[in-house]
Design a protein that fits this description.
about 400 residues, alpha+beta, four-stranded antiparallel β-sheet, 11 helices, 23 strands
Length: about 400
């Protein structure tokens, strides 16, 4: 009996199995128009590959524009309920990502790197179908249908013969509505996360420019900030090469170029080694010294939380000269907020590198320790709120993934 593990109580009976081609209104799938870059920026709204990777259904407000003649547009016009699949990917698991258009605009077309399926709306709820296409069972079929040369590609025939199980239309609609509500919650949390991140950036701008100042606990004003450079505040050291000593389940965690994420947070999982050279201790700062040409990681800095870390090459260490003069959390926020300095000073072409001089000459506007601490505590409290929301997003996504496996056959 083909029924899901998790089901709304008002429904029973077996689900029906069908190929995607048999669910298409005209029993065919179609490729879109390959956009001419000289015609981008005006004309009809264009659904492209990037629209397949967003959490919700296709957002019309995000679409780019493509200039087409009327006949070509009419052949590739998008209607309510149309579902799209990516045709190719550098990795096999990346093919046939899908999304659905649930709007009613009359001026939308789609990219030639996509395959379009127009479902029979009398049989299939397009939102339900789009969720079904994201289940592991259906994804496995689509991936197996890919053909790999330089890239992995999938054609109309392979997409069309992919099979899904589906219930009566009323049950499809109920499932789609429930999952849409889950997606709306994820969307709200994602927006909250973005707003908190923007608020943090705005407050750092005002705090570090001294547009906003804290006061002492007794209400008095703090003194003027001092201009210093990192060399006055920190001792600097480079890491050594430990790649040959990496083992599983080693006692010490190895700090490499991959140990800090793009938000300058220390990752939780690291390579490990068995021995330490005492290169890192608690409250040391580590800084990324090398990055690819864009330099987005260059100079990003994190704090070492305990004595169980070892410093690898191409990562620098900054150890405070005086704990009574600086708050290490304040300095980390200050350095990462001013990361543009390090990107501009990176030297190289395919890979950018920071010199010791560039690092130690980095200018720091430094308030007294008490004001540093107030700023650090304030920004840390925002980070905690951001992290809570990030965890809520991951929990919601995990819940949704479980629902997809249990609410579909």
């Amino acid at each position: 009996m083909a029924v899901p593990k998790l089901r709304f109580k008002e429904f029973d009976g077996d689900w029906t199995k069908s190929s995607l081609i048999n669910l298409a209104k005209d029993k065919s799938l179609n490729n879109g128009v390959f956009n001419d870059q000289n015609k981008v920026g005006q004309g009809y709204k264009l659904i492209n590959v990037l629209d397949m990777y967003i959490e919700r259904d296709i957002d019309e407000s995000r679409l780019s524009l493509l200039d087409l003649d009327l006949k070509e547009f009419e052949r590739n016009k998008v209607k309510f309920g149309d579902i799209f699949f990516t045709r190719s990917s550098l990795v096999k698991e990346g093919i046939a990502f899908s999304n659905v258009y649930l709007g009613h605009s009359q001026d939308i077309t789609y990219d030639g790197h996509l395959i379009k399926l127009s479902p029979d709306l009398e049989v299939t709820n397009p939102s339900f179908l789009n969720y079904a296409l994201k289940t592991s069972k259906v994804r496995k079929q689509l991936i197996q249908g890919g053909k790999t040369a330089t890239m992995t590609t999938i054609g109309q025939q392979e997409v069309g013969k992919t099979t899904i199980d589906f219930p009566v239309l009323d049950e499809q609609t109920k499932i789609a509505s429930f999952l849409s509500a889950v997606d709306e919650k994820i969307s709200q949390l994602t927006e909250k996360h973005a707003l908190l991140s923007q608020y943090k950036q705005g407050m750092m701008q005002k705090l570090f420019s001294q547009q906003i100042r804290f006061k002492a606990d007794d209400g008095s004003e703090f003194g003027e900030w001092e201009e210093k450079c990192l060399s006055e505040l920190f001792e600097y050291a480079n890491g050594k090469s430990f790649e040959a000593e990496v083992v599983e389940n080693g006692k010490f965690k190895l700090i490499t170029l991959n140990s800090i994420d793009i938000k300058a947070n220390l990752k939780k999982v690291h390579k490990t080694i068995s021995n330490s050279d005492n290169s890192l201790i608690k409250n040391d700062l580590i800084m990324i010294l090398s990055d690819v040409a864009h330099g987005n990681f260059l100079g990003l800095t994190a704090i070492i939380p305990d004595n169980s870390y070892v410093l690898n090459q191409r990562v620098g260490r900054l150890r405070s000269r005086s704990r009574s003069e600086i708050n290490i959390v304040f300095i980390r926020f200050y350095i990462n907020f001013n990361q543009k300095y390090f990107k501009l000073n990176g030297q190289g072409s395919s890979q950018l590198n920071l010199s010791k001089a560039d690092i130690l000459n980095f200018p720091v506007s430094l308030p007294c320790l008490e004001e540093q601490t107030k700023i650090a505590n304030f920004l840390s409290s925002i980070d905690q709120k951001i992290e809570v929301v990030a965890q809520q997003i991951e929990q919601a996504k995990t819940w949704k993934k479980g629902l997809l496996q249990q609410m579909f056959v």
